[in-house]
Design goal:
26% strand
Amino acid sequence: MSMNSWIIITDERRTGGMLAAVRQLGGSATAAVVGARSLAETVAKAGFDKVLLFAAPENLPPEAYAAQVADAVAAAAPRLVVSSDMPSARVLLGAAAVKLNAAVAASVKAIAARGDSILVTRSIAEGKLVEILEVKGPAACIFDGEDVDQVADRPTAIEEVPVRDPGGALRVVETTSVDADSAGLLTAAKVVGLGLGILTRDDLELIRDLAAAVHAEIACTLPVCDDMRWFDSSRVVGSSHSQIAPDLYIAVGISGQPQHMSGVRDAKTIVAINNDPEARIFKNCDYGILGDLYKLVPVLTAAFKAAG
């Protein structure tokens, strides 16, 4: 049975990770890019066997092309369809899954083949457990695994698919920011996050000073918002709130629970400060600093200020 795969892409996040995952099946990998040509050009550098571009005008969201993308997937009849957890990509994946009569799985970390079956590894119970599913027929997976840098020797040729006019059923009429703070956090290159290692509200000044020295936005864990009421929900990073991808994320007094870490998994560099050598975050950071944050944060702040 063919183990060919399609990956539906509406933004470049985790493209390499999804490609690496479907390569485990041994078949061909097709990228179905819905959006701008610049996105397709980025995807083409990853090493797909085929890159299809459904060029959507700026006034039409990717979801407007769900029916056409689903028809294209059904015509190709791949064994597996994958998307990221972006809302628009999930909509397109769902439409394709219906056409293929595919089994659907979310929070997928890894994919493998066993005989004629596909084995899907996914996290459950807020990341505390791992479950392996066996799929006999077509599968549709929302990928939630790690990203992987994929750069081919030469980019794949882009095949532009003539898009059908979806009519007036769905179009963008206005785009506004619900919360200016949240918008800044989502696009920030540097972010300082704080958890319950901060003991009192007055001590937040330590974090504000560090963030100012780093030229960073401030984020927090869910308990800092819900339990301590020190920040509103626009500052919460985690699977149920904002997911960010800064160049630098400094986690101060954060234990590293899966719910929070899923919100920063796309950060390029994670620095963790914690006084607990067994803190989970030390297994999920690039640099870990073990010690009292009340001593370490002022030192870091001074160093960043000196560096300009």
